[in-house]
Specification:
This protein is of the alpha+beta class and 558 residues long. The chain is built from 16 helices and 18 strands. The longest helix has 45 residues. The radius of gyration is 43 Å and the shape is elongated.
Length: 558
């Protein structure tokens, strides 16, 4: 059976694919030469291996115990589960990306080797991603072969991080595909042969009294938790601090120290409210932070304005989240700090510019309104002095048009361009102004407004206001002979598909056949038609009993 497996496996070895994990071949590993154990008393901590029970390969406690019993003095190991940190939701095919995202977040630090809390693990180079083909050879390589091949890479890492922050690892059973456990650790010892006894001890066992290894699956101690927090916090570009349950600073990002020009000695271990000159000692902030842990709440965009030491007046936004570690039932607070000083300055500058713009518009509208009234007064005075009745009529028509524009402009000038206007209130004010300016006390004609709910843009409101004014003027001039009593009704109706404006009177009405639109005989009629076309609507004229109704209908899509 063993021979059959070896024979069936010989051909697939040449067809193996990059990035795929294959089970080790016991018969192939047995071909390795027997090596004596180098420095068998040197204590070793293997900081990286896996457990799994796959259909084609089992590597659990018994298999690990067998490898540990090959002669080296393995005093401890660290198990890393490959299927940790998966995404909890999202497409199933993307959930494994969560592990990569987690690792990438920690490893994203610039000048990684210069970070004192980073430890480099040396190993895992048998075949995956390292371009070594030891696993395809007829027999496993010797420890001398492995040491010679790996030495340039391993020594480079040790030079960057130092022996105090480097550790050899087995990466078993992944690397078991290309070398046995005993030969692997012999190779590591050959690479470190020229190191001092202290460096050897650090590389093989990590000097456990100093090295902080992080078990990412279970945070079992405050030291381990702090190591992870510092590693993650240092990757964040915005200032970030980690607080314990008593709101004391556990760790802070380098960006925090740079932004506030403080040192770790002045920060770590102190309560947040004691930092600096008490700039964070704010009752409201204290209350919010103290409520996050017991109430399971968060803090969003809490704004702090203060004259900070060394950096001057600043405006900061604080956001806080609770982090709970199930392994030891401990809790931390992550507090992110964003400097929004420039943003707030720009916002104030924008608000000031808008205020100035509004003042200029009000002044301009005031002057335009005054100018329109002056022009209207001049036209009315001129109409009273001319001898020709036709000229007088034209001057009065011009006076009415100018007053119409002035009335609409007066009602709309407080509204910014493009804003939504409440039609009912707008028509009410407009008709009140028309009645006050065009109906003297002795006029027996009343003006009534019936407007439903609805809004429109200020641009549409200008056109509707001018149409309303023209139709009211037209009714006053033609529907009621001198001294006749009557009523003019302005109606506005709105639906999901269109809005409709109508002006009705109970005057003398129109005679003869009714056209589909007002007869083009006067200036007012031409203005109404032009404004309606601009809105994308249509004008209809119908006879009432008594009187006349002229309506403008504008589709919502127009």
């Amino acid at each position: 059976m063993t021979a059959t497996r070896t024979q069936s496996r010989a051909q697939p070895r040449a067809q193996w694919q990059f990035g795929r994990i294959y089970p080790p071949d016991a018969s192939w590993l047995a071909k390795a030469p027997v090596e004596p154990i180098l420095e068998p008393d040197l204590p070793i901590v293997d900081p990286h291996h896996h457990f799994w029970d796959r259909p084609d390969h089992r590597y659990l406690i018994n298999e690990l115990r067998a490898d540990l019993g090959t002669g080296h003095n393995i005093v401890a190991t660290v198990f890393f589960e490959c299927r940790s940190m998966y995404r909890a939701d999202g497409p199933p095919e993307l959930r494994p990306v969560g592990e990569t995202e987690f690792v990438a977040g920690i490893a994203a630090m610039s000048d990684l080797a210069q970070c004192p809390n980073v430890v480099v693990k040396l190993g895992g180079m048998i075949n995956r991603g390292a371009a070594f083909d030891f696993h395809r050879a007829a027999a496993p390589p010797s420890s001398e072969t492995i040491a010679a091949a790996w030495r340039p890479y391993v020594e480079t890492c040790i030079e960057l991080c130092g022996a105090e922050r480097a550790m050899f690892e087995s990466n078993f059973p992944v690397d078991k595909i290309g070398i046995g456990y005993a030969a692997l650790w012999n190779a590591f010892k050959r690479i470190a042969a020229g190191a001092s006894p202290g460096e050897k001890l650090a590389l093989q066992s990590g000097r456990s009294h100093r090295l902080r290894m992080v078990d990412c699956d279970r945070m079992s101690s405050a030291e381990n938790r702090r190591t992870l927090e510092e590693a993650i916090v240092d990757t964040v570009r915005e200032p970030l601090i980690v607080l314990d349950s008593e709101l004391k600073v556990v760790a802070a990002s380098r960006s925090f120290y740079l932004a506030f020009k403080v040192t770790p000695q002045d920060t770590e271990g102190r309560a947040l409210y004691e930092l600096g000159v008490g700039q964070w000692d704010i009752p409201g902030l204290r209350k919010l932070l103290e409520e996050i842990i017991p109430a399971h709440t968060t803090m969003e965009e809490y704004e702090v304005e203060h004259d900070f030491p060394a950096i001057g007046p600043r405006t900061m936004l604080l956001n806080a989240r609770k982090v709970f570690y199930e392994g030891n039932n401990s809790t931390s607070l992550l507090v992110a700090i964003e400097d929004v000083t420039e943003r707030r300055a720009l916002e104030r500058e924008k608000d000031e510019l808008l205020r100035q713009k509004d003042l200029l518009l009000q002044e301009m509208n005031h002057r335009v309104n005054n100018s329109l009234h002056i022009i209207a007064s001049i036209l009315l005075l001129k109409a009273q002095t001319v001898q020709s009745e036709e000229t007088r009529r034209h001057l009065r028509d011009a006076h009415e048009r100018v007053m119409a524009v002035a009335t609409v402009q007066e009602q709309l000038h407080p509204s910014p361009f493009g804003t939504q206007i409440a039609v009912a209130a707008y028509l009410t004010r407009l008709c009140e102004s028309l009645g006050a300016s065009m109906m003297v006390d002795q006029t027996p004609v009343s003006l009534k407004i019936e407007a439903g709910e609805g809004t429109m843009t200020s641009e549409q409101a200008v056109s509707m206001g001018l149409i309303t004014t023209e139709l009211v003027i037209n009714a006053l001039k033609h529907a009621f002979p001198a001294g006749a009593k009557g009523e003019i009704v302005v109606r506005y109706e709105s639906s999901a598909s269109a809005w409709r404006l109508s002006v009705s009177d109970d005057g003398v009405g129109i005679s003869g056949s009714l056209p589909k639109a007002p007869v083009r005989t006067g200036l007012g009629t031409s203005i109404v038609e032009a404004l309606t076309r601009q809105l994308g609507g249509r004008v209809t004229t119908s006879a009432a009993s008594p009187g006349t109704t002229i309506a403008v209908t504008v589709p919502r899509a127009a």
